[in-house]
Amino acid sequence: MLERLDRLAAGRWARLRDDMRRCRLRRGAWYPVLSLGADEAVVVVRHESVILPQVYLDIVTTRPDKWTVISAERYAVCPNCAQRVALGTPPERMRCARCSGVFEFEPQPEYSAP
User: Fold this and answer.
1) Is residue 101 within 8 Å of residue 85, measured between CB atoms?
2) Distance (Å, rounded) from C-alpha 94 to C-alpha 92?
3) What's phi and psi for 50, nearest 5 deg?
4) pTM across the whole model
5) Alpha-carbon dihedral sign for residues 70, 74, 76, 77
6) How far apart are CA 40 and CA 53, in angstroms?
7) CA 32 to CA 53: how far, in whole Å?
8) What is the pLDDT of residues 67-80, one digit of tens each?
């Protein structure tokens, strides 16, 4: 059953918030959400279900289709396969070397990193 967790159709997707640290999730990668509780979410991480506080997560209802840029660490994360790519100035669109998908970049938030 563990292998099937990644194949389930997810109604929601989650990623680690920018200001969270020390968690099993990789920054910038999106994970399928299996269920949401009052304060917790169950997400699939490396073929396993993991329970996390919702305050750790950004949760959306459709799978993202844009590269996530982790500015402080200078890399981008593919929305399809979660491949990390070293990055300078993001181009308008970029092809992923792992999955061959071509995606735009998500808008950059205007805030200062901690």
Assistant:
1) no
2) 7
3) -130, 135
4) 0.79
5) negative
6) 4
7) 15
8) 999 888 899 999 99
pLDDT, mean of residues 79-88: 92
**And the tokens for 49?**
């279900």
Each domain of the chain, given as residue ranges in start order, spans 2-60, 66-105
Q: Locate the DSSP E strands across the chain.
A: 13-16, 31-36, 40-45, 48-53, 57-60, 66-70, 75-77, 84-86, 93-95, 102-105
Q: Is 100 left (phi over 0), alpha (psi -120 to 50) or beta?
A: left
CATH of domain 2-60: 2.30.30
Closest CA to 77 of 66, 63, 67, 89: 67
